[in-house]
Structure formats: C-alpha cells, structure tokens
Amino acid sequence: MSESQAAIDALENLGLTEYEARCFVALAQLPHGTAKEISQVADIPRSRVYETMDRLRDEGLVELHEAEPRMYQSVSIETAVQLLREEYESYFDTVEQTLQQIEPAYKKATQGVWALNTHEQVSGRVMDIVADATDEIVLLVLDDLLNEETLEALAEADERGVPIYVGTVAEPIQERVEDAGIDTTVFTTELVEWFTAVSDSPRLGRLLTVDRNPILVSALHQEELPGVPNETAVWTDGIDHGFATFAERVLTYELTENTTTESDETE
Questions:
Q1: Which residues pair with 137 in a beta bridge?
Q2: Could you write out the three-class secondary structure of the chain?
Q3: pTM of full prediction above 0.70
Q4: Higher pLDDT pick, 261 / 71
Q5: What tens digit of pLDDT does each residue of 91-113 get?
C-alpha cells in the first residue's frame, strides 16, 4: 500500500468521505492546484472536485484563492491534524454526555456478578473501580499485572487522600510502586505467597476491593499470544451474595492481619 493510499484510508477512518480524503491528499502533495489538477492527482471526476472542495473549506482544511481559474491550497498538515483531532475528540465528548443522560439511574445501583472476558476489559474495570474510591483501596497483585494505567489511577487516588494497600511478593511490582512515588502500604502475607506460588492454569491474577464494597477477582489463563496476558475476571458492586462476601472477607482479613503484624513489630 502506498503512503498516499494509507493517508486516504486513515482520513476516511476519521470521518472524511472517499472523495474528500482523495482531494485533500492530492492537494497536500501540491503547492496549490486547480480543480483540473486536483482531479488528475486524486483520480476523481473533475465535476465532483468543486463540491468536495467546498466541503473541505467548510471543515477548515482547504483555502480558496479567487482567481481564474480557481486555485485551492490545503492548510498545513499540523493544522489539519489538529482540526481532525479536535473533531474526533468532540465525538467522544458527545458520546459520553449523551450516554450518561440516557443511562437509567437504577443501572448504576444494580447489584450482581459480572463477567469480563479480556485483559483490556479487566484493566478498564480496575481503573473505574479505583477511580471511585473514597476510603480505602486493597489490591492483591499476584502476577505482573500492574501496568502504567493502573499506577496512574492509584496515583490519582493517592492525591485524593485515599489509603492504598498493595499485596504482592513480586519485587518488580514493589519497585514499580515505589518508583511511582505513591504513598502505598506494600505488604506480603502467607496467603498472598500461596496464591502466587500456584502455577496451574488458570491461576489468580489480581484481587481488588474498594471501600469494602466493589469486588473484582481475576484469573490468568495460558497465553494465546506471546506477552499478551490472557486474563478474565468477575466483579460485583454489592456484597449481598456468597462470592462477594467471601472475597471481601479474604481481602479484609489479609489487610487486618498485615496491619496487626506491622503494629506488633513496631511495638
């Protein structure tokens, strides 16, 4: 695929029509051009160039020089990219605002156990849960699953003054937390060590509770792609049934035991 075609495809993915993308890429290769020249380079009918250029002008991507014949010039690549980025981001803002307005109020309060089928879904839910924390975060990390996005979410919680407890036996994870400069209590217990030592697939990946309410427990399966975690999880926003009660008790116990042990050693 040529660079021109790659640029055309990318512009179409950003919302431009095929003719708009072809005309803009053609004009970007010329210092300026007439409709005839643009038609030849873009390989579209000349009769379609005029209306296409009018739309590109309305979008701020093309400038017109009134002459005979008319002369067109594209804005700088930097300006075009900025305009497209702003419009693309505005779509996300619109989606977020409109979806929040139509989401039923009861949906946020619905209690149940929900399944997550990919590592990306698990990480996204972890960040969402951490973002809502106000009183306490307890996170057991039993594998190399503490990515930059999660660290950023923890850092933001730290800035809000939320106490954070991370249970792990992995030195790289401990170092990552320390290097991030987050005020975090990193602890290890026999249960964390036992969970970590299990090598069978699937095995536990991470356990999270926030404010002793939302609970998330993930499992790691054999990798399907090298270096890409094959992670699934279940999570709940209530503790009115067995799974949530069990997970909350385990995490609370581990935190309490760790805190008690540290206090005894200090005394």
A1: 164, 210
A2: CCHHHHHHHHHHHCCCCHHHHHHHHHHHCCCCECHHHHHHHHCCCHHHHHHHHHHHHHCCCEEEECCCCCEEEECCHHHHHHHHHHHHHHHHHHHHHHHHHHCCHHHHHCCCEEEECCHHHHHHHHHHHHHCCCCCEEEEECCCCCCHHHHHHHHHHHHCCCCEEEECCCHHHHHHHHHCCCCEEEECCHHHHHHHHCCCCCEEEEEEEECCCCEEEEEEEEEEECCEEEEEEEEECCCCCHHHHHHHHHHHHHHHHHHHHHHHHHC
A3: no
A4: 71
A5: 888 887 887 777 655 455 455 67
